[in-house]
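Please predict the structure of the following assembly.
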Amino acid sequence: MFLLAAGLSVILGLMDVVNLAHGSLYMLGAYVGLTVLGLTHNFWLALVVAPIVVGLIGLVMELTLLRRFYGKGPLRQVLLTFGLALVFVDLVRWTFGPSIQSIAPPPQLAGATSILGSQASSYRLFVLGVAIVVGAVLLLLWRRTRVGTLVRAGVADKQMVSLLGVDLRLVFTLTFTFGAALAGFSGVIAGPYLSVYPGMDENILILTFVVVVIGGMGSIEGAIAGAVLVGLANSFGTYYRQEFAVAIVFALMAVVLIVRPRGLFGQER
Amino acid sequence: MKWLAAFVVVLVVLLSVPVWAPNFWVSVGIQTMIFATFAMSLDLVLGYGGLPTLGHAALYGAGAYAYAFWAVRFEPSLPMLLLTGMAGGAVVALLIGGLALRARGIYFLMLTLSLGQILWALAAQWTEVTGGTDGLNGVARPSIPVLFDVMGSLRAFYVLVVLIAAVGFVVLTVLVRSPFGRTLAGARENERKMSAMGYPVLRYRLAAFVIAGALAGIAGASTAAFNFAATPGLLFWTTSGLVLVSVVLGGTRSLVGPVIGALVIQLLLVALPSITERWQMAIGAVCIAVVLLLPRGLARLPRRLKA
């Protein structure tokens, strides 16, 4: 699950945009999934529809608002997306009510599977599998395809890439849409074992930021490494000293930053 | 001279509030003045220093908890409110600033955000010490000699926070016009040049951060005293977001701006819930509108309209 949070946060790291509404997109994904599930009782359909819907929302956000504020300093972006986050969370509360809900896992995955003699929830294994697949696909896209090259180049030197005749605006729009869709996807995926409620966005958002900061902005590899580290720290922390779990995650971040201010895989710019 | 006169008139008007206003509005006034102090401290870092921080709530909350720790154990007093608030805010500012100031732009922003969240996590989860999500309750207001007997706790407290805001305003005004403030602004405009001229930019910024922390801490301590509690919500990043909105709404790089912004935001927070249930959405819409329509803030609006 942290892998997913990471995959999506990278997209933002790539674009140098602080998106405080990213958690909201994740939340919207969960609620779209919930709605589809309520109508059709088909988890797989929800998993397909939610990313598309959230991706479209992201597309509209980028085209109408965010696009104007690239390269104008983070402050404007922060305010804008903070405002959007407030609007989204209230919209969700308005439409779906404030109560905590949960998405039922698909019947095929509702049970437990035993591996090496120990029981594990099938759904969690499924999530793990999905996370690995998504991570691998992202890495491939990032490293081996033209689009990946373009985005990486765009991150490295915006001016140069535009001068070479690449429509960076289009690339950024698509990247943002893709990131939004990924957030929506994560929302549905996380639904069955993290509950769905207005406010889920704020909690996930910060963890996502930590993952990006640890991994280094603008790097998929970093996001994956960051996610694994954060996930481990969180689990161990929860297991040993419940009250410090979250603080341990942040302490981990502080340590990484003191050693490598740009994050594990961050590039000096 | 004109400014001084305006300042005195505003101060007199503000101080007259407890005489004629009902309790409810005195409470709103207290919250506004505290928030204005908080917003001014942010403006020193954000406007004059040019450092976009999203961890300012941590300094505010640190002041609140510092005073709360003191007040639940010992006799609360006015000097202790100021002292604990200042110390709490300044120490946390030193820690966060020391770590985060090495980074620039977006990195700085994310660092301040995440470091601030550490404090929030500790406050919310380390229940034995911080009271967990309930926070520390039973924080008493300090008694204020003379005033307390004349007008009672609430009104006396109002006078106190107005004076704190006024002193904060004066101190910051002097500060930003001093060589220190000029250097800070110079580093904002051209960091390399200032470094090349031999100014230790990082140290100047850290100093600004710590001063802002001390003031934010006092604001936080006042909040804790006013609400009789220090809660983790004070430290949460949305508090940083809200104060950021106030500063930008009012206008950065002018100390009047944050005060106006704080006033508008507090009035909205009071008024909106009674008008519509969707007040959060309205605040969000205000943020978006500010960014799109008023990038320079309300304080500069008259000048812009004239031009």
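The first strand of chain A starts at residue 112 and ends at 115. The CA atoms of residues 18 and 77 of chain A lie 6 Å apart.
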